Amino acid sequence: MAARAECPPHSLRNSYSQERRRLALFVCAAIMVAGVGVLGLGRVSWFRQLVESWINIHLLFGLLLCGLVLVRYNWIIRYAPHLHEDIRELSRHLSRIVYLMLYAVIGIRLGISLVNWGWHGGSLALTLLDEGLRNDDDGRVFNPHHDYHMTLLSGGITLGMVRVFLTGCLVYRSRGE
Q1: pLDDT tens across 71-130, in order?
Q2: Would residue 3 count as lying in a domain?
Q3: Alpha-carbon gap, residue 26 to 20, rounded angstroms
Q4: How far apart are CA 57 and CA 128, in angstroms?
Q5: Which segments of the chain does DSSP mark as H helices, in order?
Q6: Using an 8 Å Cβ cutoff, are 151 and 105 in contact?
Q7: Could you give the 3-state DSSP secondary structure of residue 119?
Q8: Is residue 123 helix, strand or coil?
Q9: What is the b/e burial string over 61-84, where b = at least 16 CB atoms within 10 angstroms of the residue's CB?
Q10: pTM for this structure?
């Protein structure tokens, strides 16, 4: 009879499958955040009205985006000790997540607009600027009622959180040790 080697519970194979599950969960959360962001840029629908009766959809997008970055930060601190040693690299990594989510949300929304134009016809509006902003003489750049502006503001606040809060926590942690 040949002896069969048992894999210890802390083997690389077990670790790899846990890493894949965490990554799948993170990707699902990112898809949910992107879905809320696209919903916030879409025309008024029954689902958007339902969500907005409960909470501002742009605030929800910003909170979910901040939560996604905080989850990734916690994941890096816990499971990737080599990355949290380099504060700049960690800040860049977390900022990339925010930029990718903003690009995905705006790109998906513009893609939906393009598909609607091809399917239904009519005018094609692939601009992020409001018509009133381009023709207005009052010089107002930020409009709190414009969906794209609020989405970009949510991303900007999240980037500020990454740059100030998380980097400050890491600097404090590295000086404390």
Answers
A1: 988 888 887 767 666 778 888 888 999 999 999 998 888 888 888 788 877 777 666 655
A2: no
A3: 10
A4: 18
A5: 12-41, 46-54, 57-79, 87-120, 131-135, 147-160, 167-176
A6: yes
A7: helix
A8: coil
A9: bbbbbbebbbbbbebbbeeeeeeb
A10: 0.74
| Residues constituting the chain | 177
162 located within any domain: yes
| Separation between Cα atoms, residue 31 and residue 68, nearest integer Å | 11
Asked if residue 9 belongs to a domain, the reply is no
Q: 2 is written with which tokens?
A: 């040949």
Containing 95, the helix (H) or strand (E) segment is: helix 87-120
- State how many domains the chain has: 1
How far, in Å, are 15, 72, 74, 171, 175 from residue 19 at the CA level? 6, 13, 14, 27, 30
